[in-house]
Amino acid sequence: MDKNIYKRNELLAQKVIKGLRSRNMTGYYAADREEALKIALSLIPSGGTVAMGGAMSAHEIGLVAAVKTDRYRFIDRDAVSDKRAAMLAAYDADVFLSSVNAMTEDGVLVNIDGNANRVSAIAQGPKKVIFIVGMNKVCSDTDAAMKRARGVAAPVNAQRFGLDTPCSRTGACMDCKSPDTICCQFLITRFSRHPGRIHVILVNDTLGF
Predict the structure, then answer these.
(1) How would you classify the pairing of strands 95-98 and 49-52?
(2) How many Å apart are CA 203 and CA 76, to the nearest integer?
(3) How far apart are CA 44 and CA 67, in angstroms?
(4) Side-chain half-sphere exposure of 74, counting CA atoms within 13 A
(5) Is residue 128 within a helix (H) or strand (E), and if so which, with residue range?
(6) What pLDDT sits at residue 81?
(7) Runs of H (alpha helix) within 138-202
(8) What are the residues whose beta carbons fall under 8 Å from the beta carbon of 143, sequence distance 6 or more?
(9) pLDDT given at position 83
(10) How many domains does the chain have?
């Protein structure tokens, strides 16, 4: 990463953290993936139940591999036949891991979901939610964040899952009503009424989509 971009991200992260604090959420700055992993693990109690939604960023920093060890009780929905039961169990987890599709410079989180298991768990249920967020996902305001979520994250994820949607074929949001659409539920998290529940680790790197 160019040193000027790295410095810009470092400074911008402090603004985002201040914004999160004003919204009753906790922000952290990680200079790299290794530091992000260290911070995340410090927030997860030994023996705690850990669940997650789709979060490539958590995979990329090594967090998913770390919580699959004997130190934690990981709810792995991909390893069981009854995925609904695994998703429902996630609501009672000690920790839920996620990322964001986009967020604003003043701390608003934007997420889009197809099945809604991820956004519903972010909104309510798990005792603690830990977001792993690359600085590439920070946008100027809510409108820009929504455009990123729909115009960048959604098409890439539709392609990744092999879905038959217009955005998968064109790379651009078509505001479709395709049976395969993943733009079913939109969650904007602008404030947390529960102190200590939402934690956002900002990583000075490009992570996720």
Answers:
(1) parallel
(2) 25
(3) 9
(4) 18
(5) strand 128-134
(6) 86
(7) 142-148, 154-160, 166-170
(8) none
(9) 87
(10) 1
Q: Which two tokens stand for residue 44?
A: 């997860």
Residues of the chain with pLDDT under 50: none
Owner of token pair 């603004």: 15
- Helices and strands in the chain, H and E counts: 9, 10
Residue 55 is part of a domain; what is its CATH number?
3.40.50.10420
Residues 130-167 have pLDDT tens digits of: 999 999 999 999 999 999 999 999 999 999 999 999 99
Provide the whole-model pTM.
Answer: 0.96
Domain that holds residue 198: 3-203
Instruction: Output the pLDDT for position 173.
Output: 94
Asked whether the beta carbons of 117 and 53 are under 8 A apart, the reply is yes
The sheet carrying 73-74 orders its strands as 26-30, 198-203, 128-134, 95-98, 49-52, 73-74
Q: Is residue 208 part of a domain?
A: no
Q: Exposed (0-12), middle (13-18) or buried (19+): which is 88, by Cβ within 10 Å? A: middle
pLDDT of amino acid 1: 83
209 found inside a domain: no
Structure tokens at 87: 């998703």
